[in-house]
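Note to self: the last two entries modelled the partners one at a time, which told us nothing about the interface. This time every component goes in together.
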Amino acid sequence: MSLPPLVAPAAELTVDEIRRYSRHLIIPDVGVDGQKRLKNAKVLCVGAGGLGSPALMYLAAAGVGTLGIVDFDTVDESNLQRQIIHGQSDIGRPKAESAAASVREINPYVNVVIHNTALDRDNVKEIFSQYDLIVDGTDNFATRYMVNDAAVLLGKPYVWGSIYRFDGQASVFWAEHGPCYRCLYPEPPPPGMVPSCAEGGVLGVLCASIGSIQVTEAIKLITGIGEPLVGGLTVYDALEMTYRKIKVRKDPACALCGENPTVTDLLEDYEDFCGAVSPEAEEAAVDSTITARELKDWQDSGKSIFLVDVREPAEYEIVRIPGATLIPKGDILSGEALARLPQDRQIVLHCKSGVRSAEALAAVKAAGFKDAVHVQGGVLSWIKQIDPSLPAY
Amino acid sequence: MITVRYFAGARAAAGTDHDAAPAGFSLDQLAVELTSRRGERLGTVLKAASFLVDGVACHDRSEALPDGVTVDVLPPFAGG
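The predicted structure of the combined assembly is written out below.
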């Protein structure tokens, strides 16, 4: 299914622009007309991170006239393995500003709009309404459902991409012509079941593989060339080096874009919708959470505790709290490792940031270890509060 | 016959990219069957995965699947 161009052409290209974009202009399908459409286009990148980096850089180079960048975060050293729009000297700088500087360096003819803010239910529609097309490069389910809902409610197309370790997925969601994100994933996964890139890692260059698909689709939509990835999902496997295209159809029972929608406006709270931790974990953590400082005091006072690190072996290799025994969360939830927990010492669980340890805590308490606790903020809090010489990741 | 195609983490957990099951199975029955065939690791992935039946998300997991359909198993991830 081909679609008409999303954007009308700008009045003209300057002599400088004709020189710059000559390799586009001589492709018959793009031509002067297509380049004028790119010049007139307003594209918003949600997130200037892994996917946002290549997306913004190629959209800028391609001559998209107005590029919006929304990101509330600052550049961290652990971003630089994949977020190539930022460099060493940008560490600590707001990502939106750092990305804007790179965009201007790549192409001074781009009008860059910086939204140095967190996208939320109060600003998302107002920000989206200023653009023709959205590129989604966010890193969590809550924001992804919000981006989808806002785009559908405003009738905007958006190019979606997602990455994890060696796997990537990309699609174009546009409810007027095909399915939306909720047609593909009607419900967010149960909390704690799906690791993020911060927990599970991501091959840096995967961002380029998926980000470039997103830019390709954005250019096709703007200029009206080719077959857009509406109603299709591209699944990329870097280890197998395969791209598989799956057909995704509009779901008649979709809560948002189906025949009888039950979601007719943005949700009140997307964090709540996606559940940062499960209700069981939340309940288990009440009155059973200690700080990194309290853990240190317990250790120093010789209190009889058994400290369990519930992260994965690769994380344990990177950094660990002294005295911790590694028992990955999965082995605790399956019940396999419960026999390794001593009955005569107080169990203290920790992970990277305190989410997985809360899940494990619920299982450990249910198994009868009533006085078990977990460490708020995990090993990251330990590094910050107790031993800043250790590497954060 | 139902054709099952595994993607991303589901493929890794199953150790194969496809499976077959008899027609008439519901998605719930399919999940039990595939877990016993391929192991608990796949079972965990199936709990969070989206199932597309001939391209459409399936809401009723107890409904019998007709002969000849293809079920795509897609584990969600949100990294960016």
